[in-house]
Amino acid sequence: MPESIDALQQSLATVGYFADRRLATAVYLALKLQRPLLLEGEPGVGKTELAKALSAVLSRDLLRLQCYDGLEQREALYEWNYAAQLLHMRAFEGRVEADEVEREVYQARYLIRRPLLQALQTPSPGAVLLIDEVDRADEPFEAFLLEYLGEYQVSIPEIGTVSAMVTPVTILTSNRTRELNDAVKRRCLYHWLDYPDRERELAIVRSRVPQASAALSEQVATFVHRLRSQPFANAFQRAPGVAESVEWAKALVALDTITVDPEVVADTAGILFKQREDVAALTKELATELLAPEPEPT
Q: Could you tell me whether strands 37-40 and 189-192 are parallel, antiparallel, or unpaired per DSSP bridges?
């Protein structure tokens, strides 16, 4: 556990994650208070990457539960190894009482542990559990999560209550495709994660793409920052995320780009944008405008 917010920021930076003060404060409090942290924000702002960085900084195993529509409890918590149970029952059929066989087959060794149960049963120093894109799951699944989020325990009918051996660091992410239940939010600390400012994005690009020249990294960070800013942002359905900035920088290096010009922007638009309309909107004319020096403040 980092001793301070500053120490946490520095530790995250050593693994290539550059958190601003507000985000570092939210993470520090989640660790200190042993509360889940709900991160909401646009796709590509670094929500998932934060869990990966925390796993490295805290030397904890990263467990990931990827949510989707129709996700069932057994895929998140556990299911029984039915084949092994059946073999056990056949082996003892007729030799012991039926209720004794039933007690035997519902032992922990027949459990197939999924991310939630794995997180609760991970020994010291514990796990980092990422519940990714929880907004994609349905409302009954949110209700199922409440016991875990509020008490770090789950109930298994055949065994009973399983409580955490070591409190897991729990990160929930949401792209806000729908509003989450208030009961989920009340059990978590909350942080809205926005796109990074230019300086923080520049630091990320330099860290992730060290082979890019200082001038090229500057151009990438400045260009993407202007793309997300008004009036240019109105031309696109979705702004590029940090992951796209990094991939674009890697692509420019692969193309031996020294200076970004409108032609290379148009040629590589499919790295910055994933929607046909947005790629088409990034014309050479608009790229020229975006690459033009910003006017000096008067």
A: parallel
Report if residue 92 sits inside a domain: yes
Q: DSSP string covering 95-157, please?
A: TS-HHHHHHHHTSGGGEEE-HHHHHHHPPTT-EEEEEETGGGS-HHHHHHHHHHHHHSEEEET
pLDDT average, residue stretch 204-212: 95
Asked if 120 and 168 touch (Cβ cutoff 8 Å), the reply is yes
Q: Are 31 and 2 in contact (CB under 8 A)?
A: yes
What's the pLDDT at 156? 84
State the burial class of residue 191 (Cβ atoms within 10 Å of its Cβ: 0-12, 13-18, 19+): buried
What does DSSP assign to residue 234?
G
* 247 within some domain: yes
Q: How many domains does the chain have?
A: 3
Supply the pTM of this predicted model. 0.86
Could you tell me if 276 and 210 lie in one domain?
yes
> The domain containing residue 255 runs over which residues?
198-290
Domain contains 125: yes
Residue 222 lies in a domain: yes
